[in-house]
Write the structure tokens for this entry.
Amino acid sequence: MTEEHTPAVKRGLDILDAAADAARRRNRDDLVERATTAKTRLASPGVTVVVAGEFKQGKSTLVNALLNAPISPVDDDLATTVPLLVRFADPSEASVLQEDPDDAEVVHERGVKPDEIGSWVSEATNPRNHLKVQMARIGLPRRLLSAGLELVDTPGVGGLESAHGRTTMAALPMAEAVLFLTDASQAFTASELTFLRQAIDLCPNVTVVVTKIDLYPEWRRIVEENQRHLTEHGIDVRVLAVSSALRQTAIARSDEQLNAESGYPALVNLLREGVVADAERTALQAAANDVYSIVDQLEAVIESERAILADPDRAAELTRQLEAAKDRADRLRTAASRWHTTLNDGISDLTSDIDHDLRARTRQLLSEVEAAIDAGDPTDMAEELPPMVEQRLMDDIATNYTDLTQRADELAEQVEEHFAGEESELTTGMKIAAPVSALEQAGRLELELAERPGFGANLLTGMRSSYGGVLMFGMMGSVIGLATFGPLSLGAGALMGRKGAKDEKARQLTLRRQQAKQGIRKYVDDVTFRVSKHSRDTLRQVQREIRDTNMERAAELQATAGEALGNAQRTYKTTQAEAQSRLGELDKALDHVRRVRTATSELLERES
Amino acid sequence: MSAPDLASGARALLDAARSVYAGHPAATEIEPVAARLHDPLRVAIAGKVKAGKSTLLNALVGERLAPTDASECTRVVTWYRDGVTYRVMLHPSVGEPVPAPFRREDGSLEIDLGGRDHSEIDEIEVEWPSSSLRKMTLIDTPGIDSLSTEISARAERFLAPDDDVPTAADAVLYMMRHLHSGDVRFLESFHDDEVSQATPINAIAVLSRADEIGVGRLDAMSSARRIAQRYRGQAKVRRLCQTVLPVAGLLAETAVTLNEAEFRHLHTLAGLDRNEIDELLLTVDRFVADDPSLSIVPIERVGLLDRFGLYGVRLSIALLRQNKVTNASQLSAELARRSGLDELRSVLAEQFAARADVLKARSVVVAIEDLMTRHPVPDAERLDAELERFMASAHEFSEIRLLNALRLGSVGFTSDEVEVAEQLLGAQGSSTSHRLGVELGVGVDEQRRVALELHQRWQRRGESPLSTRDVVDASRILSRTCEGILAGLATAG
């Protein structure tokens, strides 16, 4: 898999190489490792864009027209039933995530032919998703995708408030951006605006794309009206207008003018500049944070040695300080450290809150549904009740899950703040002892630390890239509908007269109500059980990710403090001449390390 | 069939109501109910925002009466009924109805609300001398899922006021752009299991703006027909409405109001070079672009687009180029056929108009039941007995009940039996030949033979010891229907 990188990313990768090189010279394998990990992350950022919208607004057509490939099947009637992820690959490749026929909780990834992917995701060939595909993926050699862009074509069947609409909503926290499609036949409906309002909370980078502008003479007025609705509701998003039919004709004829008329250049530009470039800036910032951390630590070690060589009289004092620093670094790795406590307490609070919230919601749902059953005859609701329950449950779970992701993010940030606080105290503590430009150093260091954004988003990459939400909701949809409500015979009474056979009718009704309630309770319990297990697993994974990352960094700091301390103790025994030549070496090393930092700052400045 | 019986039964019921409620303040409610028996059938056109309700209303009236444009324009429930003179009445929420001045702007009505906000007006009543409205009064309703929840709530209040309150309409045309869960929920509220309430019998679903389903391609309507066919087969839809028909509303409206100038413009465009016309028809923007080489000026092309839509223009030009039509009236007829309007009209005539007496009688029953619930009077038992007698004696009601039960899938028939039974009960149309499932024009003797055969079939089914109670009851109703048909044929012969 080869991807093309922008000059900024290339420069960032070079800088990370230089940082790795500097760490290697100081024999710091742990820091080399960190630079390598950062490189991998920067090289393929994975920018997910979810294509959402009501049923039949042209979502699949847009993905096809954008990439000039018949990826998603397009039909006048039903189309996509499974989320389809389109990303870069050369040569093309495709796979589906399919549930194990025996155990729905086991998912297999299965390679398929790229040109057959359509048959896995379309209602026509996979009605009601009987193939139990949770998600399909296809990789294509397209330039637009080469910078890590991943498009997710979502099923929009049955309205935004339906189960599928909820699936889309659940995928949003994982997405960098959302394209919300609505066709030019009419302005926003109430349900579309509700969706937009909720979407913007989950993923701030939303663009409304008005489609089919080739067909509706009034499309400009519709775009304006949509904009007015957005302003009235205080939703601040961009609005673009496109014609996929025109784009396809334009590509077929290689007609630039037509392509411009189709509105696609603006969309492509938005994806490149507004989305990919945005994500690139974030990725660069994250890489820069790694570089700064590596450089700070290397610098601290070099400077501690240099300080003692330059002023051996202060050795005892410096050793004391470095010992204290090492103690602090050791403590960072123990369970007693502040970040550790915050993390452990936070996760256990979150686990029980999320679980409690889910239970409260399902209890409420069950009591409402049971009241509805008691008020009527389940036979009359046999068609509508199961989808209604499914939808409500999905709605509750989506809200619960969104809450989980948001709070996990907050927790990660909080832990990071605590960790960073301790880290900065530590590095500053190690360096402040150095007489050389101590003030200047301290000042700069603080400033830089203040500039760093929370690491939360980066820490949770594992959780994000697993598409946990999407998978979970794929799993939801596959839970078999409710048990039937018993025999449908209404008895003679209902058919003939209004007053006959009342007792028999009442007895049967009670029975049907019981059956319906049992069926629904079993279904809700089953789904709740699986979702709550999934949530616990997710949170455990979050906890592990944060803990492992921080532990690694604590180990680095420990090594740094240990090395600095070792240097301070060793330098007692050097001669004057040796000291002079060593000082020269150290100055060079320091210079090298600082140049890496300067290059990083320059790159960030250019890109911001 | 036995329409006089139904009407006299309903009248007897009304007389009983009058005497029971004599002197009661609620007595004033009876006369409007009685009036419904003489008035044309009331058909409401309902559906989501911008589903094309007003456009379809115009197509059915054959005149551009209801204002239509790309934004939501029907904000108040509006009645269009036949009258001797042109008149518009406003029914404010508070106070007496007042006449309102109006003018016609480009065909459609512009009503002066006299400075009132539309939220202060309950209903607008338009009286318009029209042969189409003589057959049925049409009621235009505001869209559901309107961003203005107030407007949306009005439509729901009107169509499905509260649980047991009768609706003002006898039948409903429900417009849906495609089957949303929201749509079904809405149909549900109109539908209720109690026979006297709304049933699939009085609702027809229209897959509206059908041309847009195929994003304006020339084969768009066949796509729409396929989708309507699929919906028709779904149990969920079957229990909510009689059938689903695709209609391209704008095309239908234009077909019945096509003028010579429009035909001439299309004719000129159809004469252009093939490439030139293809480029022009690529997008709406191109079609109306400033092009001095075209003899049809942009404003005229904007006009065409307004009236036909891009699909309509594409279709008309294709028809002209292939010489399938050569004059305005041929084009008008062809567009009316292709838009699905002709089929809708014939289904309306079969399902609603031919059944008008039953539907109206049913509305009377519901209204009286409602009156009794809201205003209990000591003497109500007498009225209740009358109601019960009427309901039980009118075979048409039994037929409707059975048809509903069949639609709900609650009778233990085989699918083949369901099909034959539904047809016999008039699901395909209530004429004798429709019910018997014979070709039009088949002789009386042949019809009698088929009717006798059916009669025997249902009698046997009813007498079979294996039949469950519901099947026995249903079969009895069906054999009685056959007897009615045979009696009708005897007088005809």
